[in-house]
């Protein structure tokens, strides 16, 4: 027991809880503490056995390797946001939940637009983390190859858990998993059959209504989730939004060895965008209407207890109507149509086979193919119909060559269009020093495919002065194509520790990382391109590979503790040492982030959650004006929820009061073009939001 307490204290010293601590100093402390814990654990088998009753069951995770593994055997750091935590926060959107994950850097330019990244890297529409719903990727060429979080056709209520892989996972999921994976797993339709009604009503026009209906018949089950949600966004912004979401999931057992799952989901809605005083109205106030739909089919065949075949097919479709008029400067003063209307379709099929080769050797392999179609006359001038195809093969071996050791070897090869194939390997070892302590270390290489818009995006504002045959006038050319972009490559080294301590039933998850990115893609201004009439005011730019490497080094950790029955404390902290020859690239990663949540069951069906969120200075993307150097200032904000459960007749009722963004307004992500007009005065600050929730679940 003494060695465990000493180990715990060493980690407490290492953590320091100082957000401004330099990354190198944190790394030194981590290595000292980790080495000390290893020495103590090796010589205290008796103490470990004594502590076994204090050990909590670690969650079983699927995302890191595509194999079901206890968290301490996975070849990656992984955070699980379970249903209990989702319910305790009371949050209305998924990105708010992800702020509780170490290493995640998230901001809102407005209430309906979320910027979600890991370690801050990414452009205005980040695509550096793979985002999945039940294994279906939700990236869309129609959202400039990013994720439209507000329009996702999924409700919070149907989520079973979210697994977040912190660190590259391209060896398992390909190019978009360059920095990690967010896997949103929905509940089986047979879970908690019945009816449920949920209502939110609050400030800033919050008006939400959700309904769930589910039931079973024989070997099949079906669940329907429907929701309408909306609010007026942040004060002072053209920011109102309203979305309707429909989701239908069915699960059918066809035989003792075969199961079929389908999910049909759709959303439609509108949101306010833009600013009233943007340059020439290039980002004028307007409304965007969007629709999203997805069909996902999965067949599972289990010929034996140690073998499984999975066949996935899905189709994603989305469309957005977003058009307005800009105004050319005096003396021209004519209206210029800007039309960002767009639509896209993705078809994807994947075959996966899991099997046990022996008592100590397991494997998974698979094949995947995808085809994307994109249509937008404005985003791709002269070539409105874009398409891209991908094919990949992947495989993994897990070898438990010793009761205390496991080795995971992954490899993936993928090919996009006419590009040369890219090979992504990963090799990790997990060493269980004691029943309560595991060390993980390994290496991975990843490639990130340039997006369709980065390579081929060609945006021009053109005015036709007179009917043909008069030539059109090119006013600005803000996005120029660059078909010669190279795929960025990352080499990553990782050392991790996962330990459990009897004091306060504490779990500590630490990740020490070194990530080197070559051929990083950034947006570069080209003022020498003077052909556009207004090039002096809005210079042309394009995406280019940076000549020098980007280096990210640091430590991130999460402490999950229960000091007494009914109390849970969740603390996450990240320190990053950013290295790049380009200041603008360094600014896209905040040097520190932190979150602290206190979840309390008070008895008598009363419960509460209090969360503090801290974010360091962050630029957040390259922006429409890539020469802008504006960085949002550090901020601290608070969220709180107070809930009471009751029973009325045969119905379970929960009433809750939730508030977010307390403690003063702050800016999270700036629109650089708009911000350049206002100096250092933030133009898009958050607003506190408070709402009352009522949930009724008839028995």
What is the mean pLDDT? 89
Tally the helices: what do you get? Answer: 9
Which CATH architecture? Answer: Beta Barrel
Any idea what the radius of gyration is?
25 Å
Largest sheet: 22 strands, antiparallel, barrel
Strand content: over 45%
Compact summary:
By secondary structure, the chain is mostly beta strands. The protein has 9 helices and 37 strands.
Structure description:
The structure is a single chain. With 699 residues, the protein is mostly beta strands. The protein has a single domain (2-681, 692-698), classed as Maltoporin, Chain A (Beta Barrel). The protein contains 9 helices and 37 strands. Helix 1 packs antiparallel against helix 2 (23-42). Residues 1-24 and 26-51 have low confidence and may be disordered.
Throw out a few tags for this protein:
22-stranded antiparallel β-barrel; 5-stranded mixed sheet; 10% helix
Topology:
Layout: H1 2-15, H2 23-42, H3 45-51, E1 60-61, E2 69-70, E3 77-82, H4 83-89, H5 94-98, E4 104-110, E5 113-118, E6 129-133, E7 136-137, E8 159-166, H6 170-173, E9 180-186, E10 194-202, E11 207-217, E12 220-231, E13 241-253, E14 258-273, E15 286-304, E16 307-321, E17 323-327, E18 335-339, E19 342-356, E20 361-375, E21 385-402, E22 405-416, E23 422-434, E24 437-447, H7 452-456, E25 459-463, E26 473-480, E27 489-501, E28 506-518, E29 521-526, E30 540-545, E31 550-561, E32 567-579, H8 583-586, E33 592-603, E34 606-615, E35 635-648, E36 651-662, H9 672-675, E37 689-698
Parallel strand pairs: 6-9, 26-30
Antiparallel strand pairs: 1-2, 3-8, 4-5, 6-7, 8-9, 10-11, 10-37, 11-12, 12-13, 13-14, 14-15, 15-16, 16-19, 17-18, 19-20, 20-21, 21-22, 22-23, 23-24, 24-27, 25-26, 27-28, 28-31, 29-30, 31-32, 32-33, 33-34, 34-35, 35-36, 36-37
């Amino acid at each position: 027991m003494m060695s465990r307490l000493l180990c715990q204290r060493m980690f407490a010293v290492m953590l320091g809880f100082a957000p401004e601590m330099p990354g190198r100093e944190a790394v030194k402390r981590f290595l000292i503490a980790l080495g000390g814990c290893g020495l103590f654990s090796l010589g205290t088998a008796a103490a470990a056995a004594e502590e076994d009753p204090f050990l909590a069951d670690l969650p079983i995770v699927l995302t890191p390797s595509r194999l079901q593994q206890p968290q301490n055997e996975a070849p990656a750091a992984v955070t699980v946001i379970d249903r209990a935590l989702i319910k305790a926060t009371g949050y209305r959107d998924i990105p708010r939940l992800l702020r509780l994950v170490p290493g995640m850097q998230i901001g809102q330019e407005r209430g309906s637009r979320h910027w979600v990244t890991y370690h801050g890297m990414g452009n205005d529409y980040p695509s550096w983390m793979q985002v999945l719903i039940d294994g279906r990727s939700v990236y869309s060429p129609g959202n400039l190859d990013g994720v439209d979080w507000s329009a996702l056709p999924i409700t919070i209520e149907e989520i079973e858990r979210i697994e977040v892989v912190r660190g590259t996972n391209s060896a398992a999921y390909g190019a978009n998993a360059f920095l990690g994976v967010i896997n949103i797993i929905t509940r089986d339709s047979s879970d908690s059959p019945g009816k449920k009604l949920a209502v939110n009503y609050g400030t800033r026009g919050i008006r939400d209504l959700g309904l769930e209906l589910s039931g079973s018949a024989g070997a099949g089950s079906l669940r329907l989730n429907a929701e309408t949600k909306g609010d007026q966004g942040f004060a002072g912004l053209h920011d109102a939004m309203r979305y309707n979401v429909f989701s239908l999931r069915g699960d059918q057992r066809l035989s003792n060895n075969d199961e079929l799952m389908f999910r049909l989901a759709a959303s439609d809605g509108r949101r306010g965008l833009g600013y009233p005083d943007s340059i020439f109205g290039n980002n004028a106030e307007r409304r965007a209407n969007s629709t999203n739909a997805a069909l996902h089919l999965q067949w599972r065949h289990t010929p034996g207890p140690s073998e499984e075949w999975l066949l996935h097919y899905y189709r994603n479709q989305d469309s957005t109507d977003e058009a307005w008029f800009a105004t050319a400067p005096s003396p021209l003063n004519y209206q210029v149509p800007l039309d960002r209307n767009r639509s896209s379709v993705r078809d994807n099929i994947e075959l996966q086979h899991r099997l046990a080769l022996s008592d100590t050797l397991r494997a998974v392999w698979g094949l995947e193919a995808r085809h994307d179609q994109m249509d937008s006359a404005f985003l791709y001038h002269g070539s409105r119909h874009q398409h891209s195809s991908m094919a990949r093969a992947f495989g993994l071996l897990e070898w438990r060559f010793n009761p205390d050791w496991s080795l995971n070897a992954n490899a993936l090869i993928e090919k996009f269009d006419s590009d040369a194939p890219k090979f992504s390997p990963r090799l990790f070892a997990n060493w269980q020093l004691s029943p309560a302590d595991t060390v993980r270390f390994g290496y991975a290489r990843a490639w990130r495919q340039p997006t369709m818009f980065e390579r081929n995006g060609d945006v021009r504002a053109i005015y036709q002065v007179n009917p043909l045959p008069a030539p059109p006038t090119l006013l600005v050319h803000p996005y120029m194509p660059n078909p010669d972009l190279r795929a960025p490559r990352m080499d990553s080294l990782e050392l991790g520790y996962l330990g459990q301590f009897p004091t306060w039933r504490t779990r500590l998850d630490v990740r020490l990382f070194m990530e080197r990115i070559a051929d990083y893609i950034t947006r570069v201004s080209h003022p020498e391109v003077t052909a556009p009439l207004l090039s002096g005011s809005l210079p042309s730019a394009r995406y280019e590979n940076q000549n020098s490497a980007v280096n990210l080094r640091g430590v991130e950790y999460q402490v999950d503790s229960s000091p007494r029955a009914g109390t849970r404390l969740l603390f996450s902290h990240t320190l990053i040492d950013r290295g790049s020859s380009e200041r603008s690239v360094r600014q896209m990663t905040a040097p520190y982030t932190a979150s602290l949540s206190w979840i309390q069951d008070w008895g008598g069906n009363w419960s509460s959650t209090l969360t503090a969120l801290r974010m360091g200075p962050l630029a957040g993307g390259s922006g429409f004006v890539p020469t802008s150097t504006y960085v949002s200032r550090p901020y601290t904000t608070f969220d709180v929820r107070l809930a009471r459960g009751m029973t009325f007749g045969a119905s379970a009722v929960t009433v809750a009061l939730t508030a977010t963004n307390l403690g003063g307004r702050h800016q999270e992500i700036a629109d650089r073009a708009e911000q350049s007009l206002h100096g250092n005065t933030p133009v898009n600050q958050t607003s506190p939001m408070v709402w009352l929730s009522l949930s009724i679940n008839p028995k």
